Amino acid sequence: MEKLKSLVPKNLEQTVGSSTVDDLPSSCSFLLRLFQQSQLFFQVSFGCKRPRIFLPFLSGKLIGDLTMDPENALCGKKKDAALELKRQGNQCFLKGDYATALVYYSQALQVAPMNAVDMDKNLVATLYVNRASVLLKMDLQLECLRDCNRTLQISSNYAKAWYRRGKANASMGNFHDAIRDFQISKNVEVSFNGKKQVDDELKIIQRQYKRSNTVQEHSNNNKLDDFDEPIQVKLHVTTSNKGRGMVSPIEIPPSSLVHVEEPYALVILKHCRETHCHYCLNELPADKVPCPSCSIPLYCSQRCQIQAGGRMLQNVPDNKEILKDLSDDLRKYVQEITSPSFADLRTDDVPEHKHECDGVHWPAILPSEIVLAGRILAKFVGQGGVFADASNLVDMLNLSHHFSEMHADSKLECIIYSIILSSCLKQFFPSQLPVNENTISQIVILISQIRTNSISIVRMKSFDAPGSRDQSGRLSSVAPFTCNMEQVRVGQAIYTTGSLFNHSCKPNIHAYFNSRTLFIRTTASVTVGCPLELSYGPQVGQLDCKDRLKLLEDEYSFKCQCSGCSLVHISDLVLDAFCCINPSCFGVVLDRSIFNCENKKTKDSLTVDEQSRLEPFMLTDSFLHAGPSHCLKCGSYRNIKSSCSTVDEAWIHFTRLQQEINSNRVSETTVSDALRALCSLKSTLHAYNKRIAEAEDNLSQAFCLLGKLELAADHCKASIRILEKLYGENHIAIGNELLKLSSILLSVGDCNGVECIKRLSEIFRCHYGWHANTMFPFLNILEEETHKFVSTDV
Ligand SMILES: C[S@@+](CC[C@H](N)C(=O)[O-])C[C@H]1O[C@@H](n2cnc3c(N)ncnc32)[C@H](O)[C@@H]1O
C-alpha cells in the first residue's frame, strides 16, 4: 500500500486528503486515471505471509495476480502438494504419531483437487478415510464418523470407510448402526481376507448388541440450536446528539432479549483462519472441512461450507452398484449417509465466499474490512442491485459514516483499496460492476460505513474452567480456577439494525453472539423513552474518562456524549486516584490530566442521591476550591510525583509475581515482597484504585498456587470489593471474579461458595439469558456441584 501511495503526486494527495463526500467522485476519477496511465512497474506487498507480488499495475498484472486462474493461483488446489502431504501423514500414522498425521491429512485435504485420482481412488475420499483412521485412534469417534460420511459421499463403495464407520459407531455404543456399517462393508469389500476381518468384527458387535440392549441415539451433530425465546419489545429509532439511536417505548426489565439479527455480511479475521470456521466462526473441530474449490477457507461442517460457498462437496455418488445386493433397510441407510439432505439450509442468501473462490488471491491478501466490503458488494449485485447512479448502494445500506472527518492518509488509502477491489470484483461481475468514479466513490463510502458500523464478533477463549469434565463426562476437578476469562475477536460483520445502537461507557444493554447471530439483552431496567446503548469497547471502570474519550475518538472517530463521560461519577474519580494524606479522610486526590477532564463535567445535573453517593470522596463543589494534587474532600496536598515513584517501586514486585504466576512457580519470597508492596500501594493509592484490585487478584492467584486457599479467598474478596465500586455489582467483570472465588471456596469446602455460584449464575444469565449454560458449560457443572454440596451438608 505504501508503494501505491508513493505513486500519487503531492498536489493530488492534498486534493484527495481534503475531499468531502460531494467531491469524492472527482478525487476517485483523478486517482483512477493516474493508475491507469502509470507505466511504472512496482512491487506490492500487503504485509501478509503470501509471497510478494511483482506487478505492472497498468498492464493489469496487479489485478491479474490477485484474480489469477485456479491452475496457477497460490490459493488454488495442487495435487502434487496434496500427495506429498498424504505421504507424510501416512509415515506419521505408521509411527503412531497421530496428532501430526492429523495435521498432514488436514493440510492435504485443503489443497487436494476434488477430482484428483490416486491409485484408482478419488484422492479426497482417500484422505478423508485416512483422517478417519487417525481420529479413531485419537478416540474422536464422532469426528471419525463424519469423515467416513464424507468419504462415502464421494465414493459410496469405499469398504474401509464403512468399516471405520462401524468401528466408530461401535465405540460410541451405536451397535445397531455399527452392524449395518459392517454388513455394507462386507458386501463391498473385494478381498477374501478383508471380508473375513469384517465378518469377525460383525459377529463380535452382534453379540455385544444382544447383551447391551442399548437404545439407539442418532446424533445430529449439525443441528443448529433451537431458538424460541420471544423478543420482548419493538424498539423505536430516534435522533439525538449521537445521530440515530434506539429507545424503548415501554419499561423493560433487566435480562430481556431486545434484538436478534443475522449479519448482512460477515468476514473472519485473518488470525483466526486456521482456528475458526469461516462461516459460523465457531472453533474448528479436528475434522475440519476445506472449501472444495480453493485452499483458503476451512469450515466446521459441510453445512457451513455449503452455506458459505454455495456448492456441494461433490456430485451425488452413483449408488446403483452398491445398492443392488442390499436389503431394503440397508439401501435406505446407504442413501441417507451418502446423500445427506441440506434442504433446510437457507437458499435465499447470496453465498458469501462464491465470488472469492477458484483460487483468486485478493481475499487472502487484502485487509478484512476490504474483503467485507467485497462481500457486501457481491450481495448487493447478487440481489439485483446495479451501480447505475452515484448513491444506490450507499442509500440501500443507509448507514452513518465519517468519511469527511477521516485523516487525509486514510482517505487516500480508502480510494486506492476501492480501485483495487472494484477491479478484482470486475472479474466476477463483468457487467454489473463498472470500474468508474461512481462505483469507486460508492465503495469508498461503503468502507467508511464499515469503519463506523461494523461489529466485532467475539468468542470466549477456550480454557479449562473449574469442574471441566473429561471425555467420559466425569467431573475432573473443582480445583481453584484463577485465570481470567478472555474474549477473542474472531470476525467483523455488518448488522444493519444492530448498528443503530449507540455507544455508552455505562451501557444498559449487552451484545453477544451465538454462531453468526447477534443477540442484544438489557443488563439493567430501562425506563420508557430511555436510549438503549451498548459499549463499543471502553467502559466506565476499565479506563478513566480521558482515556476512554481518546480511544473512542482515535478508533471510532466520535466525541463521546454518553452520561458516563458527561457526568461526574465515583468510578472515574477513584479508578486512578491517590488517597488523601490525612488517614481519617476518604477523599480522592487526582493528577492534573484526570482533574482537568473531571473538572469539565457537569455537576449541576447530579441528583440528590448521586450527590450523596459522591459525598465520601469529594465535596461536590470542591473542583472550584481544590485543584490537582489536592484532596477533593479536605483540600490536603499530596506530592503526586513522589507518590508515582512509590507506586512504580511497589509495582516491580507485582510484575515479578505475575511472571512467576505465568510460569506456575511462585516463591514464598516473591509473595512476601508483594505483600509488603501491597501495604505501600494502599498507603499511596485510593482504596478503590484499580491497581490495588489488580494487586489483590495477583496475590489471590499466587496463594492458590502455593495451596494457601484461605488466603487466596481473602485477597480475591478484596479485589471483588474494589471492582464492585468501579463497575457496579452486576457487571460481567464481577461474574468473572466470582467464578474464581467460588472455585476457591468450593475447594476448601466453604459453603459460602454456594452463594457465590448463585450470584455468578445470575450475572451470567442476566447478560446471556438462556444461552448462558450452553456458552459457559461450567455453570451447569458448578450448579450441580452446589446441589451436591448442599445435600451433603444437610
Ligand atoms: C454504529 S453508529 C450508531 C448509529 C448512528 N448514531 C446513526 O445515526 O446511524 C456509530 C456512530 O454513532 C455516533 N455515536 C454513537 N455513540 C455515540 C456517543 N456515545 N456519543 C456521540 N456519538 C455517538 C457516532 O457518530 C458513531 O460514529
Automatic annotation (TrEMBL):
SUPFAM superfamilies, per database record: SET domain, TPR-like
Ranges occupied by TPR repeats: 82-115
Record keywords, A-Z: TPR repeat
Stored Gene3D superfamilies: SET domain, Tetratricopeptide repeat domain
Segments forming domain SET: 229-537
Superkingdom of origin: Eukaryota
InterPro entries reported in the protein's UniProt record: SET_dom (IPR001214), SET_dom_sf (IPR046341), TPR-like_helical_dom_sf (IPR011990), TPR_rpt (IPR019734)
Endpoints of the signal sequence: none
Protein's recorded name: SET and MYND domain-containing protein 4 isoform X1
Annotated organism of origin: Cucurbita maxima
Lineage: Eukaryota, Viridiplantae, Streptophyta, Embryophyta, Tracheophyta
